[in-house]
Each structure stands twice: as structure tokens, then as C-alpha cells.
Amino acid sequence: MRNYLARRLLQAIPVLLGISLLLFLIMHALPGGPMAMYLNNPNITPEQIARMKHAYGLDRPLYVQYVSWLSDLVQGNLGKSFADGRPVLDRILERFLATLELMGASYFVAMVLAIPLGVLASLRQYSLADILTTVLAYLGISMPTFWFGIVLIMVFSSWLHWFPSGGRITQGGGGPLDVLNHLVLPTTVLALYSVATWSRYVRSSMLEVLRSDYVRTARAKGLSERIVIYKHALRNALVPVVTVLALDAGYLFSGALITETIFAWPGMGRLFWDSVLKRDYPLLMGILMIASILVVALNLLADLIYVLLDPRIQYN
Does some domain include residue 295? Predict the structure, then answer.
């Protein structure tokens, strides 16, 4: 296992290098480049733009800029924001906990709902429960995030006054229950798509496993249906589902961009949107690189979970 982990970590290095190079080239290929936010300002002279390019090192050859940026990245320095001159890492860390709370809550809610729904639909195929789960899945997949968020705000905030319409905490401070109260609506919006897709994957995987020989053998031995379903069938059915859960980290981050904007949640998604509007390229690069590292790390974690779910899987 240790050799496998070391090999996967080494394999992640060229992957992240390729991602960083691609992102760096895209940022510089966009119209106006990193100085685009200043080019449209009539109050800034070409001489001032030239001085800023020199100050940020943007007048050097592109490969020199990339090597310099990569060297700083390895040392934990993501550069300084064009908008306020603050270190990019500091601005991201200020928002990271809020995004982690929202994504973690959405992951938890989605798994708690999707797995039982998928199992129920597979055990009662073509029944009313299966049909209702299918309808819920189609609604969750097709419903626009921004529209659903606005509807929840209108119903539960404006009309019923059950939950706050936005923010992470009540102005003036609040306890854990206050944070949880603010989490309910954005978590519901962000988790809906995941519940819809994950439940379909669980259903499909369970139907395939339930037809397997070892499940029929377990039933022939006289094992209770509960043990057959949850110890033998579900455990093996979750192996391919784990891959989907790991890959959906990218969706949750992109979905958080819209969700955090709608609910004024002070996380990385909203910070990313603000940096796009301001053409803050160092901040954009920092957010995208951290998101890429997160996706790679979760895929590695998924490979380790495979071993726990299915002992037949061995990594040499």
C-alpha cells in the first residue's frame, strides 16, 4: 500500500504541472491578458501600464514568468492580488473554511439521501418508490440551480421566515446553531443535483450486483435479507459509486460558485466570481490550482476507499 501511495503521489506531480501550465497559458491568452482590467481605464496612461507590467514581472518572456510563478507556488507563495495587493493565499484561506463547510454539508446530505433512495429503488424495481425516485432524479438534474435557490429564498425566507436569505452568520455574531440555520438553504440547493445523480448510480450498481452469483449463494445459505443487502450487495455496489463521488468534487465547487453568489455565502466560489469580474489573474490561478489539487486528492482517497469496500482489490 505504501508503494502504491508513493507511486500515485509521484504520478500526481506531472498531472498538476500540466494543469498549471494549461491554466497559465489560458490566462495569458485571454483578451488583454493579465492587464486587461487596466487597459480599459482611460485614467491610466500607457507609461503607468508599462510600470505595472514591470512591477508584476509581466514584461518578461512567458516561459520565464511561468517558471517564476511555479517556483513561488512550490514555496507556498501564490503571488499578490491585482485588486488589493494582498497575498493570494491569505485571501483564499479567509474563504476556504466557509466553502469547506458548505461542500462538506452538501456531501453529507447528498450521501445520506442518495444511497437509501438508490437502494430502495433497486429493491423495488418498477414500483411506485422506483418511479418517484426516478422523477426526483430527473427534476434534480434538470432544475437550474439559480432558479431553485431563488424559489427557496422566496418561500422559506420571504414568506415563511424560517431561514435567513443569505450570509454565513447573523450580523453581530452567533453560535453553531446560527451557522447551521444559514447552511440549510444553500446546502439544499447544492446537494439536490448530487442526490439526483448519485441515487441513479446506486440504483444501477445495486441492480447489477443483486443479479450476481455470490448474492444468490448468500441467499441460498439462509442469510437474512438485511445481511445479504447491506453486507454483501451494497458494499460491492458502492465501489463504482465512490468514483462518481470523488469526481463530483469539481461539480460541487463549480456549483458553489452560483450557490454562494445567490445566498451571499462568503466562500471561494463567490471569491472566484469576484476575481473573474475584476480580471484578478493571480487570484484566479490560485483558486483554480487549489481546486485542482482537491480533485486529485479526492481521487486518491477514492482509490483507498476501494480497498475498504472490496478486500479483493489489492494495490501492489
Answer: yes
Say if 15 falls within a structural domain: yes
Same-domain status, 66 and 92 = no
| pLDDT tens for each residue of 49-84 | 788 777 777 778 888 888 888 888 888 888 888 777
Distance from C-alpha of 284 to C-alpha of 28, rounded to nearest angstrom: 12
Contacts (Cβ under 8 Å, ≥6 apart) of 273: 257, 260, 261
Would you give the DSSP letter of residue 144? -
Tens digit of pLDDT for each residue in 182-225? 888 999 988 888 888 888 888 888 888 888 887 788 788 877 87
Report whether pLDDT(291) > 70.
yes
Number of domains present in the structure of the chain:
2
Q: How far is CA 59 from CA 29, 45, 112, 178, in A?
A: 15, 16, 52, 49
Q: Are residues 53 and 171 in the same domain?
A: no
pTM of this prediction? 0.77
Whichever domain contains 293, its CATH number is 1.10.3720.10
Q: For residue 180, give its domain range.
A: 88-309
Which residue, 72, 74, 75, 42, is CA-closest to 56? Answer: 72
